[in-house]
Write a structure and sequence with these properties.
Elements (H helix, E strand, L loop, with lengths): L1 E6 L2 E4 L4 E9 L6 E7 L6 E7 L5 E3 L7 E6 L4 E6 L8 E8 L13 E2 L3 E6 L1
Parallel strand pairs: 2-11
Antiparallel strand pairs: 1-3, 3-8, 4-5, 4-9, 5-6, 7-8, 9-10, 9-11
């Protein structure tokens, strides 16, 4: 079993920055990909970014390209999401997810473990 714990959410003004962290514990040795998803009130969960644990290939949804950066610290079993130039439409609960499977990085069903989520609120 893998456990994921997110941190770093909060309230920020538009144009500001936040860095989310997702620390993993448990049986993490076979992690294939780690990703971030978000869900705003009344909307479906959507893919934000993901990184392959081996090799570091990344993927982003179009709306965050150039503003968000996903990275990893393999030794600490932690993945980060640096979010710059935040917009009110980025307001959501952000979830970290992990997968041992090989599959499309941008699809939620690829992932088998989810964190509890952290709230990000961007004020205008």
């Amino acid at each position: 079993q893998v456990q994921l714990v997110e941190s770093g959410g909060g309230l920020v003004q538009a144009g500001g920055s936040l860095r989310l962290s997702c620390a993993a514990s448990g049986r993490t040795f076979s992690t294939h990909v780690r990703g971030w998803f978000r869900q705003a009130p009344g909307k479906e969960r959507e893919f934000v970014a993901a990184i392959r644990w081996s090799g570091g290939m990344t993927s982003y949804t179009d709306s965050v390209k150039g503003r968000f950066t996903i990275s990893r610290n393999s030794a600490a079993n932690t993945v980060y999401l640096q979010m710059n130039t935040l917009k009110p439409e980025d307001t959501a609960v952000y979830y970290c997810a992990s997968s041992k499977r090989i599959g499309p990085m941008g699809i939620g069903s690829t992932y088998d473990t989810w964190g509890q989520g952290t709230q990000v609120t961007v004020s205008s």
